[in-house]
Amino acid sequence: MSVGDPMTPVLPSFSARRNLREEIIETLRAAVISGQLRPGVVYSAPSLAEQFGVSSTPVREAMLDLVREGLVEAVRNKGFRVTELSEQDLDDITHLRALIEIPTVRRIAEDGVDPAVVERLRPLAAGIEDAARRQDLIAHVAIDMEFHLTLLGLTGNSYLVETVRSLRSRSRIYGLSILAAHDQLVPSSQEHAELLDLIEAGDTDGAEELMRRHMGHVRGIWAGESGAEQH
Contact 48/10 with Cβ under 8 angstroms? Predict the structure, then answer.
């Protein structure tokens, strides 16, 4: 994969970042989910490492972790290829996520959340919106993942959180670039702050309805332009 290849994703440099391997795994996972790394294209660890500004070793280790997660597959003597999901796969993932996340958010609102905890989530909500405004799709997906998993973590159920993490990781939302191009990504991103307002107010019906609407965006955008145009 050459640097001039149109399929080459724009990746950040992590030369000065802590927890390098985890940062790389998080970014590569987000690149897969957002479609910046596309199925059918073979990506080599050295070429990705060059974009990160690091050695090949942590990138190769990160990609092997994603192999174990089922997000990519190793291509012998060449690199790694993103696994492709069918429309049915993506529908099933979205359906399962909705079954778990929507009622869980309602229960969190019912149980009540310490305002101090809500305030700790607000920077993540702001970060999602900021990434949307900058059209940084990889950062948008990564922060969005952190926000929702942190919110679900308020249940104290680590199995639930890990299940949703796996489902979200397997998702594909290729339409993000289309939404960004049509200035539709920011309004969707603003729903995170609105959700926190509803939870803090104890508005269970409002929180459930917003989460249902928020989840409804997923099925509309994963497929790309045709889905994005519906929202």
Answer: no
* Per-residue model confidence as pLDDT tens digits over 151-177: 999 999 999 999 999 898 887 766 676
pLDDT in tens, 40-61: 889 998 988 888 888 888 899 9
DSSP state of 40: T
Domains, the chain, in order of start with CATH, read: 20-82 (1.10.10.10), 87-228 (1.20.120.530)
Structure tokens at 185: 């990504």
Closest CA relative to residue 179, chosen from 128, 226, 215:
226
pLDDT computed for residue 129 by the predictor = 94
Q: Is the pLDDT of residue 180 over 80?
A: no
- Rounded to an integer, what distance in angstroms lies between the CA atom of residue 27 and that of residue 39? 17
pTM over cut 0.70 = yes
Q: Which residue has the tokens 């390098």?
A: 20
State the amino acid at position 97 in one-letter form. Answer: R
Q: Is 20 exposed, middle or buried (0-12, 13-18, 19+ CB in 10 A)?
A: middle
Q: What is the Rg, in whole angstroms, of the alpha carbon atoms belonging to the chain?
A: 18
Question: How far is the CA of 179 from the CAs of 49, 128, 170, 218, 229, in angstroms?
Answer: 29, 14, 20, 12, 8
Using left for φ > 0, alpha for ψ between -120 and 50, and beta otherwise, residue 75 falls in: beta
